């Protein structure tokens, strides 16, 4: 569906709207699919937590062992899922077929799936039931969507809210995917009401996607994944909502 709707969108960029179309594709790929993964996973983790509490009380199962196993078992699924999605969509939408750009696309999609998955697991561990976990996740995802630089670009966000953009993992993913695919393209594009600009100049001037932040947002992905995993483990270890 993504490939057909955005057929060859990335192959020819001639005007501002072409970049906005690519931004929509990346926004949908990174956020909606990650949110779907999170929602599917939460009921499973909630059910398994009941068994963990029983086994932990009996002294037969370590919380650390369960947390490591829960995270590790998701990795092959995420890698296979992203690889299948990328090999189909990447070619259909017409992004440049270079090893470096395809790897970057895979990398940021995997990182996106990882923090969405771990966030879903963390919310289940932090809350007493799946209903509250789902509600909390939905509330946070609304904030992530609003400040992801798709609905409103960073420069138009009021200064007192701009910190939310920099604290938003979804914005980092959109940043990484957009800049890794378009940051080196120098063909001129038509911008209504302004002189013609290169793709790179438009990314920097209009969307605020600059080269010197690129490595930072990659490191931030790793930090937030580790943070969600740590909170997931601590919550499982010290929070017990089971009642006899």
Automatic annotation (TrEMBL):
Residue stretches making up the ABC-2 type transporter transmembrane domain: 1-181
Principal localisation: membrane
Annotated membrane topology: Multi-pass membrane protein
PANTHER family for this protein: ATP-BINDING CASSETTE TRANSPORTER (PTHR19241)
A Pfam family that the UniProt record links to this protein: ABC2_membrane
Organism of derivation: Triticum aestivum (Wheat)
Keyword terms, alphabetized: Membrane, Transmembrane, Transmembrane helix, Transport
TM stretches of this protein: 20-44, 64-90, 102-126, 132-151, 163-182, 216-239
GO MF term list: ABC-type transporter activity
UniProt GO cellular component terms: plasma membrane
Listed name of the protein: ABC-2 type transporter transmembrane domain-containing protein
Localization (cell): Membrane
Domain of life: Eukaryota
